[in-house]
Amino acid sequence: MSVEKRRELEPEEVLDLWIHWERGPMLVDDVRELPRSPLIVVEGTTVPAGGRYALWLNRPAAWSDDPVFVHFAEAIVENARRHGVPILTVTETVEETIRAVEAHFADVLARGPRAETLEDRRTLLREANEALAFQVHTGTARPWATETPETMTRDFICECDDPECRAIVTITVEQFERLARSRPITSS
What we know:
Blueprint: H1 3-8, H2 11-17, H3 20-32, E1 56-58, H4 67-82, E2 87-89, H5 94-104, H6 106-111, H7 118-140, E3 153-157, E4 168-172, H8 173-180
Parallel strand pairs: 1-2
Antiparallel strand pairs: 3-4
């Protein structure tokens, strides 16, 4: 269906076409195949509501005025409510939101399992950074993309050996991939 045809549809009709309803269960299947250690956080609107350790972040200030977007957002929040998923309405700063999410998951985070060694930690950080690079490659491969991995800048997580480090390394995806071949990506 062309973009023009989709724009003629009512928001309810567009929601019926939403591929998230099909992708969500596939995503859950993929997550179930991952190792049990260390802990894994799965996020996004594709994730179906439910599960023992869930939290929906609702940020109404970021909602578009587009009726289709509003209908999607309302449907997602309603789906979370219907499945008993706690909803955190985000009105605070990013730091305050992070603290609220950490508090919500404090018990499960404390129980672990977690990365115990520097090598475990670096492996996890590298996987996260590589996943970001992969997303950029996937997005820039689309015919309508205007940027490339050589021009698109992203915030990569510092892979240093300090467990308390929260530094971000802002470089192009191409720079990340070139540097990552020989060493951890660090802010220093």
